[in-house]
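FORM 12-B: Structure-to-Sequence Request
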């Protein structure tokens, strides 16, 4: 023991530690390597302490002692040499960094193998000289051996470079910081501001939110190790990893342990008891006369009950008590700091650090190829690291082959990167374990049906999910699902405008859209493609160029069971479709970019089709052809057409009737006279929507013959000037929206015949000069939107006949109602959200 603890090795180790402490204060050129070496030395000190408890002096071969002592002396000289290397000498930095790593491995190996073997041999010798063998062995095993071996085993974790490893620093178990950290300098400073300010200035709880693998835990570690934070909170920084298995009692026990007062924790009988004891401890620390500041870091709290869990750890009467939470969930109640993905510059640097280790030989890869791979990772730190490692040392041909496979859908970025897949997949796995979340997971997987880097309109998802999952048509459940997925950082929910109108259609899906990170979209596609092609619930495929994907060969062999089918094509697609059999498909999504586009002929046999979504992502409206294939689809209930010319399309399809079509939506389309015969084509239509249709001057008279219509929404059609007098025939109409039709000059007098009309929206109809006299005949009207009707200077006297009406208006239009007490005027404070322009 003298040889190890205080003799030859002890002296050599003491010299090494002195040199290390002297140099580490002044040198920053080997930061990460020195951190690992310091961890090894800390672990060695702990083992020295336990060895002293275990046994008296035992014989060891002098050759082994001398060898290790010599290694310690060599390490001392090496550390002192490192302090003399100039910061600009990259070659020497690399050489000596490798030498330090080698020395660290010598220390680790000696204490993992040699010392462990030494201890086992020592135990045998001790047991030999003890009369009561069973008692002595029990004492040694229980009180000493397990503790020693646990420290030796944990040393391999402590000495590793894994960012998830933990070691004791002050009062917090803080993890290792990766060798290269990018994009976290600004978030670190912003978080420090939140944590250093008093609670009456900034909130007590800050939730650091981002998808998994974005660096939340690394940033939290950096916060705890920051000198300014440590100066304020000193020994009262507590770092607890919560993870999936949320356990309040274990969390409380961990805090007591980190404070060094575990013996003060009485027997815990319940969660409430544990929280009460923690409150007493923290109030004793931070609520007394001294008022020591306290920082509690709850890492990886990704339970859906985030708010309820965090609330347990909030205590009053502690003036300088802060809680930092990291979670893949967004917060609804607490201050949220959303961690952004890496910039292009930082993403490339992180990737190159992973793919091209400094000082090593590697194949020459062109900058163009590197940029393409980096772009495919979309600033996702975990993806950049994992993909970089997978391509390290590979030829450029291998890199290019990988890119080709990704672009053509023949393979996924997740196929060879199980770490990345498993990390992102955990958020979805949690949905499987939560009751009632099946629809939420299915909805996430549906998002892979849309092209990357494109906004997805929430009404589109509403149409899909109403028919696929039997959600309510008003959009309450769809809206709720989108918010929940956004809370879990599985998509970005982007409202283009919010106001306090209280109108259900405004509050839910109208006017909003979602975006999704490309890595999450790729995850949805990957998970949807795990089964054999004939058994998949979702068939998501992309056609680039004139050929067809290879998996289409499998599609042609037998009928497919897909419920949702999404086919995306580029601008070179020739509309040459194979004969695919999709007898069970309920939703068909067609995404394209060409100037001319023909609907696939195989649609005529899709007898279960309920929803058809056709979207042109090109620059100009595309001519849509072969629309007649939908003529015999009796199950079709909803059609959405975007950025297409439908004049010749519908006029050329007069021979069919979609007798069960309930909703027709057209956006940014060229209309012409296509809707003149719509009463014959869609006799049971209940909802009709038009948006941004610039050639619409007058609402087609044919629409007024669809007597089953309940909702008409014509918004942002800036050329619309007139509504036909025949609109009075729509006796079942309940909602009429004419929002932002800036050229609309008047409403027809026959509007008074719409006795079922409950909502009228004429907001931002700037040219509307007056209300029709018959407005007072609308006995069923309950909601009137008329913000921005600045061309209107008076109201007809008949408005006195309106009853139980809420008028949503701005200050100017409110003045028009000043003399009328029969309505409730509500001034709307609009919040025009321009953040959507960045998506």
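FORM 12-B RESPONSE
SEQUENCE OUT:
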């Amino acid at each position: 023991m003298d040889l190890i603890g205080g003799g030859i090795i002890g002296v050599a180790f003491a010299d090494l530690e002195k040199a290390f402490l002297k140099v580490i204060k002044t040198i920053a050129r080997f930061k990460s390597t020195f951190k690992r070496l310091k961890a090894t030395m800390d672990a060695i000190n702990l083992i020295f302490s336990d060895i002293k408890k275990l046994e008296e002096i035992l014989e060891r071969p002098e050759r082994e002692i001398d060898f290790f002592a010599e290694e310690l002396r060599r390490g001392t000289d090496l550390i002192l040499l490192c302090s003399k290397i100039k910061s600009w000498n990259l070659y020497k930095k690399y050489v000596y960094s490798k030498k330090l790593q080698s020395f660290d491995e010598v220390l680790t190996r000696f204490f993992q193998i040699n010392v462990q073997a030494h201890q086992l041999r020592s135990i045998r010798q001790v047991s030999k000289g003890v009369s009561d063998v069973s008692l002595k062995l029990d004492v040694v095993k229980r009180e000493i051996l397990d503790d020693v071996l646990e420290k030796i085993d944990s040393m391999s974790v402590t000495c590793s470079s894994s960012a998830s490893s933990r070691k004791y620093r002050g009062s917090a178990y803080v993890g290792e910081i990766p060798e290269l950290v990018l994009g976290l300098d600004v978030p670190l400073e912003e978080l420090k501001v939140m944590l250093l300010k008093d609670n009456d200035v900034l909130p007590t709880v800050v939730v650091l939110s981002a998808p998994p693998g974005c660096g939340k835990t690394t940033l939290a570690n950096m916060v705890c190790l920051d000198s300014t934070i440590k100066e304020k909170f000193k020994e009262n920084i507590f770092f607890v990893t919560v993870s999936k298995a949320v356990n309040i009692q274990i969390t409380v026990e961990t805090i007591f342990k980190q404070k060094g007062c575990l013996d003060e924790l009485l027997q815990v009988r319940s969660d409430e008891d544990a929280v009460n004891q923690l409150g007493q401890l923290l109030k004793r620390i931070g609520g007394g006369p001294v008022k020591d500041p306290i920082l509690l870091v709850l890492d990886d709290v990704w339970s859906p009950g985030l708010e309820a869990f965090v609330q347990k750890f909030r205590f009053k009467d502690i003036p300088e008590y802060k809680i930092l939470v990291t979670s893949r969930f967004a917060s609804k109640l607490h201050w949220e700091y959303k961690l952004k993905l890496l910039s292009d510059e930082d993403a490339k640097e992180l990737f190159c650090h992973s793919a091209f280790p400094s000082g090593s030989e590697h194949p020459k890869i062109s900058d163009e190829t590197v940029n393409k791979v980096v772009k495919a990772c979309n600033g996702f730190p975990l993806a950049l690291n994992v993909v970089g490692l997978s391509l390290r040392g590979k030829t450029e041909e291998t890199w290019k082959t990988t890119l080709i496979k990704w672009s053509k859908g023949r393979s996924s970025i997740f196929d060879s990167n199980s770490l990345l897949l498993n990390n992102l997949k955990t958020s979805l796995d949690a949905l499987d374990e939560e009751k009632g979340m099946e629809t939420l997971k299915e909805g996430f997987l549906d998002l892979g049906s849309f092209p990357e880097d494109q906004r997805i309109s929430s009404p589109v998802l509403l149409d899909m999910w109403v028919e696929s999952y039997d959600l309510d048509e008003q959009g309450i459940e769809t809206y709720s699902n989108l918010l929940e997925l956004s809370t879990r950082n599985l998509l970005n929910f982007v409202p283009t405008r919010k106001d306090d109108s209280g109108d259900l259609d405004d509050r839910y899906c109208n006017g909003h859209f979602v975006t999704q990170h490309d890595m999450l979209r790729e995850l949805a596609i990957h998970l949807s493609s795990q089964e054999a092609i004939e058994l998949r619930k979702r068939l998501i495929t992309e056609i680039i160029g004139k050929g067809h994907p290879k998996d289409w060969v499998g599609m042609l062999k037998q009928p497919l069971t897909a419920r949702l089918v999404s086919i995306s094509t580029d601008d070179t697609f020739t509309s040459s479709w194979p004969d695919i059999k999709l007898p069970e498909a309920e939703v068909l999504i067609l995404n394209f970019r060409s100037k001319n586009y023909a609907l696939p002929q195989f649609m005529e046999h899709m007898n279960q089709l309920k929803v058809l979504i056709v979207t042109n992502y090109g620059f100009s409206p595309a001519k849509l052809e072969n629309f007649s294939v939908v003529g015999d689809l009796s199950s079709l209930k909803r059609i959405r057409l975007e950025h297409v010319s439908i004049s010749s399309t519908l006029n050329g399809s007069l021979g069919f009737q979609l007798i069960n079509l309930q909703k027709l939506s057209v956006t940014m389309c060229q209309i012409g006279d296509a809707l003149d015969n719509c009463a014959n084509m869609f006799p049971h239509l209940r909802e009709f929507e038009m948006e941004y249709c610039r050639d619409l001057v007058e609402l087609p008279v044919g629409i007024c013959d669809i007597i089953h219509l309940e909702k008409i929404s014509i918004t942002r059609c800036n050329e619309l000037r007139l509504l036909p007098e025949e609109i009075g025939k729509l006796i079942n109409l309940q909602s009429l929206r004419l929002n932002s039709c800036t050229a609309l000059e008047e409403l027809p007098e026959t509007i008074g015949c719409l006795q079922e009309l409950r909502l009228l929206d004429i907001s931002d109809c700037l040219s509307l000069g007056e209300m029709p006299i018959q407005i007072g005949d609308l006995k069923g009207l309950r909601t009137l939107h008329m913000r921005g009707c600045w061309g209107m200077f008076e109201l007809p006297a008949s408005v006195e006949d309106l009853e139980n009406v809420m008028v949503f208006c701005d200050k100017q239009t409110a003045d028009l109602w000043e003399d009328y007490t029969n309505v409730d005027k509500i001034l709307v404070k609009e919040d025009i959200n321009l953040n959507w322009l960045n998506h």
